[in-house]
Amino acid sequence: MLIMSVPKLERFFRAASGLDVDKDDLKRYSDFIHAKLYDLLLMAEATAKANGRDVIQPCDLPITKGLQERIHQFVKLDEAIELQPILDRLAEAPQLDLATDDDTDQHLPLVAGGLSVGLARSFTIIDPKLVNPSTEHWQRAFELFDLLL
Questions:
Q1: CA distance linking residue 113 with residue 30, whole number of Å
Q2: How far apart are the C-alpha atoms of 48 and 29, rounded to whole Å?
Q3: Domain total for the chain?
Q4: DSSP state, 56?
Q5: How far is CA 142 from CA 3, 19, 52, in A?
């Protein structure tokens, strides 16, 4: 992740949930986005195969109502922060058996944005008074997402 991305990501976490994050948190954030996109794409791959396709399309992604709402919230937040270019780099599809089509590749940064909003808000659910997430908070947030995604 580029150093110039750090201030934008810090602004994003402040805007999304009032959190102050540091560089260590941003590495954890990057790891989270990669892991959760992989999980979503793994399930999308299974859906595409079950439907007899050899490419993953956006409709194959298991986007829940809650994640779709977080994507919409991300779009509104991103108008001021302009995080989209960072997510374009972070949200590259991992190597799977099936390829992703262009529409899916273009949709992944928005999915990453929705996951980002969900992650940021999950910290304040774990601890409503939280300002600076610790390693333990990150681990708990990851565990919550692992339960559902």
A1: 12
A2: 28
A3: 1
A4: E
A5: 24, 16, 33
pLDDT attached to residue 117: 97
Range of the domain at 39: 5-148
Tokens 């595409």, located at residue = 48
Q: Mind listing the pLDDT tens digit for each residue in 34-59?
A: 999 999 999 999 999 999 999 999 99
Q: Indicate the residue type of 3.
A: I
Buried b (16+ CB within 10 A) or exposed e, 72-95: ebbeebbeebebbebbeebbebee
- Interstrand relation of 55-56 and 99-100 (parallel, antiparallel or unpaired): parallel
- We report the CATH number of the domain holding residue 99 as 1.10.20.10
Mean pLDDT value across residues 13-28: 92
Q: Are 29 and 133 in contact (CB under 8 A)?
A: no
